[in-house]
Amino acid sequence: MRRVLSPAARPDDDTTPGRPGRSGRSGNQEPERDRDREHRDGHGARETLRTEFPFELPRGYVDGSGTVHRSGVMRLATARDELIPLRDDRVRENAAYLSVVLIARVVSRIGTVEDIHPGVIEDLFASDLAFLQDFYRRINAEGHTRAAVTCPSCQESFAVDLAGGGRPGES
Q: What is the pTM of this model?
């Protein structure tokens, strides 16, 4: 019968983590890679990178059957997402079209619509496109979805989360 030992309980052999083996590597490379891959906060807990952000469109996308879709998800952009639209003929002819193609690449869902392409983004109301452009900038450049606002009645300043599920003014 063969006994399986955990890495900590193994006798000294060539594969024990932290010990040099036949390959000449120290064995510490795996934990070192883990440290590079995982960022820990000050309390030792793992911090995960948030890559998808929910949103609520101010007006909503109206599909072919007249259904209004307001909630959606946008993911973080990659370098490829920003480079590929530059090769698009529509963008070459009209630089303003860049944001339409770019937003279509990073929005993964609006309501029940999951096939997001430039035609869907073109059919958004202008206020919804402006919202998505600002939302894109916030999550990709600033790293968060909060916006500083001021109450028009009392002039108190506070932050709101643009990704929140509620509409402005609702609680």
A: 0.59
Cβ neighbours for 41, distance < 8 A, ≥ 6 positions apart? 47
Take residue 120 and report the two structure tokens written for it: 């869907």
Tokens encoding 151 = 């109450």
- Sign, CA torsion 149/151/152/155: negative
User: 157-161 and 39-40 as β-strands: parallel, antiparallel, unpaired?
Assistant: unpaired
Biggest alpha carbon–alpha carbon distance for the chain:
78
CA distance linking residue 105 with residue 81, whole number of Å: 7
With a cut of 70, say whether residue 166 has pLDDT above it. Answer: no
Side chain identity, residue 45: A
pLDDT at 151: 83
pLDDT tens per residue across span 70-116: 999 999 999 999 999 999 999 999 999 999 999 999 999 999 999 99
Instruction: Determine the Cα angle at 30 with ends 36 and 46, to 5°.
Output: 45
Q: How far is the C-alpha of 72 from the C-alpha of 143, rounded, in Å?
A: 18
